[in-house]
Amino acid sequence: AQTVHPGEVRALSPRSWFEPGYAAYMLAPTNPHAFGVPYQTPFDGPFDWEDSEAGYTGLVAFATALIALLGVRDRRAWPFLGCAAAGPLLAARFLPLAHLLYAIPPLRIPIYSRFLPSASLALCLAGAFGIDLLLSRARPRKGAWAGLALAAALSLAVAADGWTLALWG
């Protein structure tokens, strides 16, 4: 059975909202190098490369999911976006949620990083709605372009290496 290591939560420090070492799970969908270059650099995460990379679905899925979120013409993507957000929150041990879960002994047993593949699938499905917004006959709204810009900014803030720049290009 797992436990949550208490930490001091500071409102202006987002990494303190998660158990130490687990916050990068929230960054996994944004960039292929959120934990470093897989199998080439030293691992910078809580478990292993396989678990850490389970949250990455690709820049297209991430960008189009944000387009679906901000191009609010169609709300059918929102349940998928909620599932896509829940997986990394569980895996990253978001402290308010983790304290609730780990207060119940049977809920200490699951390994919550195993929810990342289903969260990745939900992100891809939400991204399909974003692609639909971009490829529709109507001109995409400003929110759609804002979603694309936000996705690029978040991704490059995590790791702005040559590989990621080439992918965005």
Kindly describe this structure.
The protein has 8 helices and no strands. With 169 residues, it is mostly helical. The radius of gyration is 17 Å and the shape is globular.
Question: Which descriptors apply to this entry?
Answer:
single chain; mainly alpha; 169 residues
In short:
By secondary structure, the protein is an all-alpha fold. The protein has eight helices and no strands.
Oligomer: single chain
Q: What's the N-to-C terminus distance?
A: 45 Å
Strands, count: 0
- The percent range for strand residues is under 5%
Shape: globular
Low-confidence stretches: none
Helix fraction by DSSP (H/I, runs of at least 4): 40-55%
Mean pLDDT: 83
Q: Count of helical segments?
A: 8
Q: Please state the structural category.
A: mainly alpha
User: Main beta sheet: strand number and arrangement?
Assistant: none
N to C succession of SSEs: HHHHHHHH
Give a topology summary.
Elements: H1 24-27, H2 49-53, H3 59-70, H4 78-91, H5 95-101, H6 116-135, H7 142-158, H8 162-168
